[in-house]
Amino acid sequence: MLVEDYEDTRVALVVELEAAGFAVDDAEDIAGADRALRDNDYDCVVFDRLLPDGDSITYVHRRRREGWATPVLFLTQLDSVGDRVAGFDHGGDDYVVKPCDMAVVTARVQAMCRRAGRARPSVLRHADLEVDCAPEHVEPQVSRSELIEHCWDASTDPMSNVVDQVVKRVRQKLLEPELIHTVRGVGFRLEAHR
Protein backbone atom coordinates (compact mmCIF):
# COMPACT_ATOMS: atom_id res chain seq x y z
CA MET A 1 0.00 0.00 0.00
CA LEU A 2 1.33 3.44 -0.92
CA VAL A 3 -0.05 6.62 0.65
CA GLU A 4 1.28 9.74 -1.08
CA ASP A 5 -0.57 12.96 -1.91
CA TYR A 6 1.79 14.19 -4.63
CA GLU A 7 0.54 12.45 -7.78
CA ASP A 8 3.82 12.38 -9.74
CA THR A 9 5.65 10.74 -6.84
CA ARG A 10 2.79 8.32 -6.24
CA VAL A 11 2.64 7.22 -9.89
CA ALA A 12 6.43 6.84 -10.14
CA LEU A 13 6.55 4.72 -6.99
CA VAL A 14 3.65 2.53 -8.09
CA VAL A 15 5.44 1.86 -11.39
CA GLU A 16 8.73 1.09 -9.61
CA LEU A 17 7.16 -1.23 -7.03
CA GLU A 18 5.03 -3.05 -9.60
CA ALA A 19 8.14 -3.58 -11.76
CA ALA A 20 9.72 -5.25 -8.71
CA GLY A 21 6.79 -7.69 -8.51
CA PHE A 22 4.57 -6.01 -5.92
CA ALA A 23 0.85 -5.45 -6.36
CA VAL A 24 0.27 -1.88 -5.20
CA ASP A 25 -2.88 -0.15 -4.00
CA ASP A 26 -2.54 3.57 -3.44
CA ALA A 27 -4.26 6.43 -1.66
CA GLU A 28 -3.67 10.15 -1.48
CA ASP A 29 -4.74 10.74 2.11
CA ILE A 30 -5.14 9.06 5.49
CA ALA A 31 -8.90 8.55 5.08
CA GLY A 32 -8.41 6.63 1.82
CA ALA A 33 -5.58 4.62 3.33
CA ASP A 34 -7.65 3.77 6.39
CA ARG A 35 -10.50 2.41 4.24
CA ALA A 36 -8.09 0.23 2.26
CA LEU A 37 -6.14 -0.91 5.32
CA ARG A 38 -9.28 -2.00 7.14
CA ASP A 39 -10.49 -3.98 4.10
CA ASN A 40 -7.18 -5.56 3.01
CA ASP A 41 -4.06 -7.17 4.43
CA TYR A 42 -0.90 -5.62 2.99
CA ASP A 43 2.69 -6.80 3.15
CA CYS A 44 3.76 -3.27 4.07
CA VAL A 45 2.66 0.35 3.81
CA VAL A 46 4.67 3.32 2.52
CA PHE A 47 3.34 6.54 4.06
CA ASP A 48 4.20 10.11 3.19
CA ARG A 49 4.26 11.93 6.53
CA LEU A 50 2.42 15.14 5.69
CA LEU A 51 -0.87 14.36 4.00
CA PRO A 52 -3.86 16.64 3.30
CA ASP A 53 -5.77 15.27 6.30
CA GLY A 54 -2.92 15.05 8.81
CA ASP A 55 0.45 13.63 9.80
CA SER A 56 0.52 9.91 9.10
CA ILE A 57 2.62 9.15 12.20
CA THR A 58 -0.43 9.99 14.33
CA TYR A 59 -2.49 7.48 12.35
CA VAL A 60 0.22 4.79 12.52
CA HIS A 61 0.71 5.35 16.26
CA ARG A 62 -3.04 4.92 16.89
CA ARG A 63 -3.19 1.76 14.75
CA ARG A 64 -0.14 0.30 16.53
CA ARG A 65 -1.94 0.75 19.87
CA GLU A 66 -4.83 -1.26 18.35
CA GLY A 67 -2.42 -4.12 17.60
CA TRP A 68 -1.82 -3.44 13.91
CA ALA A 69 1.54 -4.97 12.96
CA THR A 70 1.96 -4.31 9.22
CA PRO A 71 5.46 -2.92 8.48
CA VAL A 72 5.50 0.83 7.76
CA LEU A 73 8.03 2.91 5.85
CA PHE A 74 7.74 6.68 6.20
CA LEU A 75 8.77 8.51 3.01
CA THR A 76 8.98 12.22 3.69
CA GLN A 77 10.76 15.54 3.27
CA LEU A 78 10.94 15.93 7.06
CA ASP A 79 14.62 15.24 7.56
CA SER A 80 15.63 16.36 11.05
CA VAL A 81 16.91 13.85 13.58
CA GLY A 82 13.83 14.59 15.71
CA ASP A 83 11.50 13.85 12.79
CA ARG A 84 13.23 10.54 12.12
CA VAL A 85 13.17 9.51 15.78
CA ALA A 86 9.47 10.46 15.99
CA GLY A 87 8.79 8.26 12.96
CA PHE A 88 10.35 5.25 14.65
CA ASP A 89 8.85 6.06 18.06
CA HIS A 90 5.36 6.23 16.56
CA GLY A 91 5.53 2.82 14.90
CA GLY A 92 7.58 3.23 11.74
CA ASP A 93 9.87 0.39 10.70
CA ASP A 94 11.92 2.50 8.28
CA TYR A 95 12.28 6.17 7.38
CA VAL A 96 13.44 7.50 4.00
CA VAL A 97 13.95 11.19 3.27
CA LYS A 98 12.79 12.66 -0.05
CA PRO A 99 14.04 13.31 -2.60
CA CYS A 100 15.50 9.86 -3.02
CA ASP A 101 16.04 7.29 -5.73
CA MET A 102 12.96 5.12 -6.29
CA ALA A 103 15.20 2.03 -6.40
CA VAL A 104 16.22 2.75 -2.79
CA VAL A 105 12.57 2.81 -1.70
CA THR A 106 11.96 -0.48 -3.52
CA ALA A 107 14.99 -2.08 -1.87
CA ARG A 108 13.84 -0.87 1.55
CA VAL A 109 10.32 -2.24 0.96
CA GLN A 110 11.76 -5.60 -0.09
CA ALA A 111 13.98 -5.67 3.01
CA MET A 112 11.07 -4.78 5.33
CA CYS A 113 8.91 -7.51 3.83
CA ARG A 114 11.76 -10.01 4.08
CA ARG A 115 12.37 -9.18 7.76
CA ALA A 116 8.65 -9.52 8.46
CA GLY A 117 8.54 -12.89 6.70
CA ARG A 118 6.50 -11.35 3.91
CA ALA A 119 9.11 -11.30 1.16
CA ARG A 120 7.72 -11.33 -2.34
CA PRO A 121 7.76 -14.75 -3.92
CA SER A 122 9.61 -15.54 -7.12
CA VAL A 123 7.65 -14.28 -10.09
CA LEU A 124 8.30 -15.57 -13.61
CA ARG A 125 7.73 -12.98 -16.32
CA HIS A 126 7.49 -13.36 -20.07
CA ALA A 127 6.17 -10.45 -22.13
CA ASP A 128 3.00 -9.39 -20.29
CA LEU A 129 2.50 -12.74 -18.50
CA GLU A 130 3.44 -13.16 -14.83
CA VAL A 131 3.34 -16.42 -12.89
CA ASP A 132 3.74 -16.45 -9.12
CA CYS A 133 5.73 -19.63 -8.45
CA ALA A 134 5.49 -19.49 -4.68
CA PRO A 135 2.02 -18.30 -3.68
CA GLU A 136 1.31 -17.76 0.01
CA HIS A 137 -1.32 -20.47 -0.12
CA VAL A 138 -3.00 -22.56 -2.77
CA GLU A 139 -6.71 -23.19 -2.56
CA PRO A 140 -8.37 -25.99 -4.53
CA GLN A 141 -10.55 -23.38 -6.17
CA VAL A 142 -10.72 -19.62 -6.42
CA SER A 143 -13.76 -17.40 -6.70
CA ARG A 144 -14.26 -14.66 -9.25
CA SER A 145 -14.26 -12.08 -6.45
CA GLU A 146 -10.89 -13.37 -5.17
CA LEU A 147 -9.44 -13.09 -8.67
CA ILE A 148 -10.75 -9.54 -9.01
CA GLU A 149 -9.36 -8.62 -5.57
CA HIS A 150 -5.88 -9.97 -6.30
CA CYS A 151 -5.55 -9.24 -10.03
CA TRP A 152 -7.46 -6.02 -10.69
CA ASP A 153 -7.87 -2.71 -8.92
CA ALA A 154 -10.69 -1.76 -6.58
CA SER A 155 -12.61 0.07 -9.33
CA THR A 156 -13.30 -3.17 -11.24
CA ASP A 157 -16.99 -4.00 -11.28
CA PRO A 158 -17.39 -7.40 -9.58
CA MET A 159 -20.40 -8.10 -11.80
CA SER A 160 -18.45 -7.60 -15.05
CA ASN A 161 -17.32 -10.54 -17.13
CA VAL A 162 -13.66 -9.45 -17.12
CA VAL A 163 -12.57 -12.59 -15.24
CA ASP A 164 -14.40 -14.90 -17.63
CA GLN A 165 -12.86 -13.15 -20.63
CA VAL A 166 -9.34 -13.42 -19.24
CA VAL A 167 -9.82 -17.09 -18.29
CA LYS A 168 -11.08 -17.73 -21.82
CA ARG A 169 -7.94 -16.12 -23.30
CA VAL A 170 -5.69 -18.08 -20.92
CA ARG A 171 -7.39 -21.34 -21.89
CA GLN A 172 -6.83 -20.50 -25.57
CA LYS A 173 -3.10 -20.06 -24.92
CA LEU A 174 -2.61 -23.17 -22.81
CA LEU A 175 -1.49 -26.41 -24.43
CA GLU A 176 -3.97 -28.16 -22.14
CA PRO A 177 -6.90 -25.73 -21.76
CA GLU A 178 -8.91 -28.30 -19.81
CA LEU A 179 -6.61 -27.70 -16.80
CA ILE A 180 -8.82 -24.75 -15.83
CA HIS A 181 -12.24 -25.94 -14.71
CA THR A 182 -15.24 -23.71 -14.13
CA VAL A 183 -16.98 -24.34 -10.81
CA ARG A 184 -20.53 -23.07 -11.33
CA GLY A 185 -21.56 -20.41 -8.84
CA VAL A 186 -18.06 -20.34 -7.31
CA GLY A 187 -15.24 -19.61 -9.74
CA PHE A 188 -12.42 -21.74 -11.09
CA ARG A 189 -10.00 -24.47 -10.13
CA LEU A 190 -6.86 -25.97 -11.64
CA GLU A 191 -6.95 -29.72 -11.97
CA ALA A 192 -4.61 -31.98 -13.88
CA HIS A 193 -5.80 -35.04 -15.77
CA ARG A 194 -6.36 -38.06 -13.58
UniProtKB/TrEMBL annotation:
Q: Which UniProt keywords apply?
A: DNA-binding, Phosphoprotein
Q: Which residues form the Response regulatory domain?
A: 1-113
Taxonomic superkingdom: Bacteria
Q: Where 4-aspartylphosphate occurs, residue numbers?
A: 48
Residue spans binding DNA: 94-192
What processes does the entry annotate via GO biological process terms?
A: regulation of DNA-templated transcription
Q: Which GO terms describe its cellular component?
A: cytosol; protein-DNA complex
Q: One GO molecular-function annotation for this sequence? A: phosphorelay response regulator activity
Cite the OmpR/PhoB-type domain residue spans from the record: 94-192
PANTHER family (alphabetical) = REGULATOR OF RPOS (PTHR48111), TRANSCRIPTIONAL REGULATORY PROTEIN CUTR (PTHR48111:SF36)
How is this protein named in the record? Answer: DNA-binding response regulator
Can you name the source organism? Lentzea guizhouensis
